[in-house]
Design a protein that fits this description.
This is IGFBP N-terminal domain-containing protein. 13% of the residues are buried. This protein is of the alpha+beta class. A three-stranded antiparallel β-sheet has the order 3-5-4, with no helix packed on it. It has a two-stranded antiparallel ribbon with strand order 1-2. 17% of the residues lie in helices and 17% in strands. The protein has a single domain, classed as Irregular (Omega-AgatoxinV). Strand 1 and strand 2 form a beta hairpin. The protein starts with a helix and ends with a strand.
Length: 102
């Protein structure tokens, strides 16, 4: 079962050379976001596809999940606390979403 999940995640990476469902940036229409649109202390970061600016995540917001859930605000000193796994470097573990914490 675990091997099937790893293979499925790997196949998503390999398909078309793009990350998890990403289109080439030339085909993406980004919504214009300014840092002033974000909550206080958040900064603009690039989305998981590397195409569009988005606001970073705040305290107790979901994050990670192979970056699909977003990045925590470094300006606020936050990090993405991932679920506890036997092997934190395992791709199945890294694909799990976390929560932004201090």
């Amino acid at each position: 079962m675990k091997i099937a999940v790893v293979l499925a995640v790997f196949a998503m990476f390999v398909q078309g050379g793009q990350s998890l469902g990403c289109k080439p940036c030339s085909e993406v229409k980004c919504v214009s976001v300014l840092e002033s649109d974000c909550y206080k202390g958040a900064e603009l970061v690039t989305d998981h596809c590397g195409c569009c600016d988005v606001c970073s995540k705040g305290y107790d917001e979901p994050c990670g999940g192979l970056e699909m859930m977003g990045e925590c605000s470094q300006h606020l000193g936050l990090y993405c606390q991932l679920p506890r796994c036997k092997n934190p470097n395992d791709i199945v573990c890294k694909s799990q979403p976390g929560i932004c914490k201090l």
